[in-house]
Amino acid sequence: MTPPTPPRPLTPGPARPGAPAAPGPASSGLNVAIDPIKVVRRRLWLFVLAAVAGVGLGVATHVILARLAPRYTAVATFEYTSTIRSADDVSDTGNTDEIERFMNTQAFVMTQDNVLQEALQDPRIRQDTDWVKPFIVNGNLNLNKALLELKEIVTARPRPDSAIVELRVTTKNPRDAANIANAIQSAYYRQQRQKAQTFATDAVEAMSKQLDTTQTERRQLEARMARLMADNNIESWDERLDSITVRLQGLTDKRVNLQENIAIMQEQLKQYEEQLNAPGGATYPQAVHDEVDADPVIVKLRQDIADLETSLKSALRRYGDNHRIVKRIRHDIQARNDQLNAERSRLLDERFLQQVEETRANLRSLQQAEQDMTATIDKAQQRKQEISQLREEYFTMKADAERLAAQEEELKSKIADERARNERDASTRIISVATAPTPRERSFPKIQIVVPLVTLLTVGVVAGAVFLREILEQRIREPADLKLLPKAKLLGVVPDVAEDPEAPKRFALAALDAPAGAVAESIRQLRAAIVKRCEQQNARTILFIPGMPGSGATSVLTNLAVSLALAERRTLIIDANFRKPAVHTIFEISPSPGLGEAMLNELPLEDVVRSTSVANLDVLPAGAASLRVSERLTTSAVDRVLNQARELYDVVLLDVAPAMISSDAFALASRCDAAALVVRAMGEKRGLIARVLHQLEDMRATCVGVVVNRVAAAAGGYLRQNIQALHTYHEEGQAALASEADDASSLASVNGEAAARVSANGESIPPKGRAKRRLRLRRKAKRRSTPSSEADSESDTPPT
Predict the structure, then answer these.
(1) Rounded to 5 degrees, what angle do the CA atoms 659, 662, 665 make?
(2) Residue 430's pLDDT band (boundaries 50, 70, 90)?
(3) Residues 705, 708: Cα–Cα separation, whole Å
């Protein structure tokens, strides 16, 4: 064979990158995400069947219950009103919350033991019902057993949005139900009537005692009021207070005058003391000077000085200035002046001190008078306060007496009203009573309740079983189940070959036999995903690991190889499945020489690789059976073969035995650049996938993802719709191509005819006529094509 040309690498870089660290092992527990809508659509036929069976079972249940356990319910009613507060009070709805609480209480009361025991003594129960017969032994009623049974068949509850309480009794016999209900109604009404009368009597007695106490207190207060007036000799409290107030006003005015005079005296005394103690000597008031100047001694001395001055003037005219008589007169005048000044100073001191002492004496007198006036005012105020307190006490007792008198009248009115109210039937708050008629229709069973209920239960049981099965299902049913495994990344989805409308005969070469089919399209999508991830991780040798036998890993690998080759990538398939090789059978080549010979004899890869009918696709088969030794897959011989393949091919795909029956996959996984796990839908379990991914992680292998193979379309899913849409889109494209070909041939024919007409007649068809002709041809071609159910703008490759 011709040696292969050098490869076109996916990306430059090392052949085997180091595997990244991965998290711990994935859990395979019951952490299941269920789409309820999808489950219902998938099992819709089962739910419809369960509903039909439920309807039939419900009808049968109704018939059986109607024959074996019929129930009749008799209803007695009570209408209640608000509390009757007086003898002439009109019944109304009153406070809604209060009436609702009261009705709930009464519904509880009418089913209590005391009411039911009294009802059991009613002749309507003991003599006119079949219900009581099982409880009568030797002519005596077993009260305890009858009471327990009666509690089971009696209920009472308020009717919504009304003031009515319904008493219901349910028995097998309609006449028994009515008799028992009416007996309980009568017993309850009698007890309520007796209770109301007892309550009214107790209320009247309590109010009578309160009335006696009130009258006694009022009389005692009136006696105290009379003693208070007599002890204080008071006829009118207001006149006494007015007289004391007038007297206090006069005393207060006098004290104010005294306080003003005291203030004046104190100010004058202060001025005198300041003048007396002045630093340059005492300064005396002008009044003191005037008084001293009028003193006889001062007047006589001044008169003497005046006479001497007259004599001095005469002597000066007669004798001159130096005469001894003149000198003597001058000496006398000086002596008299000295005497005048001394006498005048003495009198000023004496008179000023006398005036100061008089001022002090007057001030003390006024202050004493002010103190006496204050004491008198305090006594008057104290007396006024005492009178005010006595007056307040008197009027307080008077108000209490009046209040007690009003209470007496109110109590007398209440006692009379209570006695009158007790005579009314409404005192029990029951304003109407309706006896229970004999029921004509069964209360149980009712077909409109039994049939829907049984149907619902049947569908519910079936739904529970379906969802329980979905929860307990551990197999991979669809690609979405991989989300439950943290380490599993979806690489691609391959539908079941039975779902492909193209119906390829060979699943292993569906990409070649039916390139327009759904399987081929899914392989192309897988090719795009795996090429992208391998380029990201610089991977060229890819190991496809089947989880269990029958997973279809070999078919997925061969289809992918064909798709890669058609995409002009040099592709090599290495069949490393020494347990059950199948690649040589698919491509119809000899199994040897192959990988076994290449590893044992160290043959060049060019000598053992086989070409196929697909361009750019070569195969390295497993080799002779005697040379398929699995232990050699763990030696360096495999590395040598893989290194040669990396140099010569763009992509190298390796097939291997299933991971769960052989360790070959894990031996090769660490030597290849990447690994992809292939599982079959409804074949492998999640735990198996998680275990394989965990072991690959332990081997430091790079797992690029998981391929889910043979996915079957189910009700409620989109896979079948997408496949059909792809097929329809492809057919429309083929029809369009055929239409264009027909248009082209029709136009050529028209042009030929026109040319013939032109050559024959020398005339041509107008351009407008040719356009119409082409339009008619296109419409005709469109009618021949298959009608499309999808818009022309849909995606070229609908998602699978």
Answers:
(1) 55
(2) confident
(3) 10
In DSSP terms, which residues pair with 617 in a beta bridge?
571
Task: Flag whether pLDDT at 782 surpasses 60.
Answer: no
CATH of 489-712, one of 3.40.50.300, 3.40.50.20, 3.40.980.10, 3.90.79.10: 3.40.50.300
For residue 696, the one-letter residue type is: L
CA distance 719 to 501: 13
Evaluated on CA atoms 483, 488, 493, 499, the torsion sign reads negative
Assign 726 a pLDDT band (cuts: 50, 70, 90): low
C-alpha to C-alpha distance for 424 and 259, rounded to whole angstroms: 80
CA distance 632 to 661: 17
Q: Which residues pair with 444 in a beta bridge?
A: 71
| HSE value, Cβ hemisphere, 13 Å, CA-based, for 450 | 18
Question: In sequence order, what are the residues at sequence separation of 6 or more whose Cβ sits closer than 8 angstroms to the Cβ of residue 311?
Answer: 329
pLDDT greater than 90 at residue 565: yes
Q: Does pTM top 0.85 for this prediction?
A: no
**Per-residue pLDDT, 471:** 75
CA distance 422 to 179: 30
Hey, what are 697's tokens?
A: 């992680």
Query: What fold characterizes domain 238-424?
Result: Helix Hairpins (1.10.287)
Output the average pLDDT for the chain.
80
Residue 243 confidence (pLDDT) above 90: no
For residue 495, what are the β-bridge partners? 711
Q: 415 CB contacts (<8 Å, ≥6 apart)? A: 204, 207, 208, 211
Phi/psi of residue 430, each to 5°? -100, 110
**pLDDT-derived band of residue 13, with 50, 70 and 90 as boundaries?**
very low
What pLDDT does 743 receive?
58
Amino acid at 9: P
pLDDT at 324: 87
pLDDT in tens, 46-66: 889 999 999 999 999 989 988
Distance CA(208)–CA(482), nearest Å, equals 88
DSSP 8-class letter at 481: G
Query: Residue 55 and residue 12: Cα distance in Å, rounded?
Result: 70
Angle between helices 324-422 and 296-319 (to 10 degrees): 150
Architecture of the structural domain at 72-198+427-434: 2-Layer Sandwich (3.30)
